Fold this protein.
Amino acid sequence: MLFRQLFDAESSTYSYLLASRQGGEALLIDPVLGKTPLYLELLRELELQLVIAVDTHTHADHITALGDLRNATACTTMMGERTRAECVSARFRDGESLGFDGVKLRAIYTPGHTDESFSLVADDRVFTGDVLLIRGTGRTDFQNGDPRQSYDSIFNKLLRLPDETLVYPAHDYRGNTVSTIGEERRCNPRLQVQSADEYVLLMNGLRLPNPKLMEIAVPANLRCGRVA
């Protein structure tokens, strides 16, 4: 599989390009508006046709490139069925497969960071959005986030994947690029809790400031990246 991990330093966001082969069809996960020229250049260099651009959830810390990519490539823009972004071309459900040209991803509903968050699972890896991070977990204090739902999504869904499954999150703030399910089970400090109640207490005590672009990014992302 052709795979590229792309990074936006301003928002510490990872985007992921997948294709089965050079010259084939491609999918892009969690694209950032300011990186659209980079994505288009890479698609040209690899002779790829972008057919799907997907957001794992409505991001609060950057503006999505879904709309710009759809305008530039005629790709299908997708989010989970619970999104409030009416501008997307199609929505996927829990357990549904997103497949094309030798690439298949299975959508898993993993709420907690937001109430419409999904993770995407391939054969050997999972794209976790902001629900499970490397040595961390996504905050649960806005956009209908819920720490108890986060616990359920992580412990009863993601951590049931094989230990060797590669973990690719939508963000990292310390320079990590990839982990595994087994590694996070052992080493992630937020996962060393004994119960859902303990996890809820931990998350409710974080008291984090809002993302600096939240008031701009969320409304724009509900319009697929169009700033009013």
Remarks:
- The first helix runs from residue 36 to 45.
- The CA atoms of residues 77 and 173 lie 27 Å apart.
